[in-house]
Amino acid sequence: MRALTYEKHGDARDGVVKKVFDPRPGPGQIVVRVVAAALNPIDWKIVEGRFPFLVFPRKPFVPGWEAAGLIEAMDSRVSGFQIGEEVLVSTGPAAGAVAEKLVVSALHVANKPAGLSFEEAAAVPMAGQTALQGLRDVAGLRAGQRLLVNGAGGGVGTFAVQIGKILGAHVTAVASASKDEMLAGLGADTLLDYRKTDFTKAREEWDVVFDVVPNRSFGECSRVLSHEGVYVTSLPGAGPSFASLGVSFRAPFGFRKRCQWVMLKPRGEDLAQLVSWVEAGKLKPVVGKVVPLDQAAWALSDLSAGHATGKTVIRIA
User: What is the span of the domain harbouring residue 93?
Assistant: First the structure.
């Protein structure tokens, strides 16, 4: 099979599409013939070595944490699926989705909604689960609360706007004005153009600030958090860790604002929840760009520049 491969950390444009060994299913695993795979910021950050604690799990490294395709083979002990079924999958840190075939745990596989194209389905698993876990589990977002999504026009952001509405929140979407129509269509209640308005200096308060760009610090965002508000970032690291530690020292003095971060944990039940919302018409994946496998390295490099609308998807077959 062919796959987008990297032998060392560096420029995302250095990726090479070449033949690698076909995967075989291990215990509890399924082999998927990939039709489309979606890219995420973490892909280019791993390739460039931005996360010292996230090294290539194996070489050559094949990026991609989510895909859609057809089941080609599976372990005899796997039940609930059939050869040839259309599915969407989440790989987790093992990655490997930007390839003609992918092996993944059956626990991270769900049937593809009939109303979605393979490109749309590939855009759901990682970004959707990150938004769901960030808002529901980490932030504890509740109906009636006020949510601000910084970076609302990207992959995770477009899901966060919609999931925020599903959970009953008033949603403020921060993005460029060119994305206003799209975000309003996804349900955003208030639209802020980051080029004209610095939300950290606003006279409003939000119960949750979900920074999915992420380009604002907890210190900046704490100014606009409610008394017990939560700042959630999609970029774990020293900054959020120190901020969280600082919060713990201030808690005995009445400081109730919190700094948290979300790290995706692929879960079958969360993937099933996203699929059910899609089938009910409550959730819609936004695909901004579709490119062929031979252009995947350049697409990954373009993604690192930011400003993407929805998800960038690689058409494999």
Answer: 2-124+285-315
Task: Write out the chain's pLDDT in tens, 317 residues.
Answer: 999 999 998 999 999 999 999 999 999 999 999 999 999 988 988 898 876 666 666 789 999 999 999 999 999 999 999 999 999 999 988 889 999 999 999 999 999 999 999 999 999 999 999 999 999 999 999 999 999 999 999 999 999 999 999 999 999 999 999 999 999 999 999 999 999 999 999 999 999 999 998 888 888 999 999 999 999 998 654 344 444 444 443 544 345 698 998 988 888 899 999 999 999 999 999 999 999 999 999 999 998 877 778 999 999 98
Q: How many CB atoms lie within 10 A of CB 59?
A: 10
Residue 178 shares a structural domain with residue 120 = no
In a domain, 275, yes or no: no
- Contact predicate 314/291, CB 8 Å: yes
The residues facing 99 across adjacent strands are 3
Residue 137 domain-assigned (yes or no) = yes
Q: C-alpha 313: how far from its chain's center?
A: 13
Give the residue carrying structure tokens 């070489």. Answer: 59
Q: What is the DSSP string of 37-90?
A: EEE-HHHHHHHHT--TT---SSSSB---SEEEEEEEEE-TT--S--TT-EEEEE
Q: Are both 105 and 135 inside the same structural domain? A: no
AA letter at 253: F
Q: Give the count of alpha carbons within 13 A of 207, CB side only.
A: 17
Q: Domain check: are 14 and 79 in the same one? A: yes
Q: What is the pTM of this model?
A: 0.90
* H-assigned helices in the chain: 41-48, 118-122, 125-132, 155-166, 180-185, 218-221, 238-250, 268-279, 296-303
Q: Are residues 249 and 132 in the same domain?
A: yes
Calpha distance 185→132 (Å, rounded): 19
Rounded Cα–Cα distance for residues 146 and 152 (Å)? 15
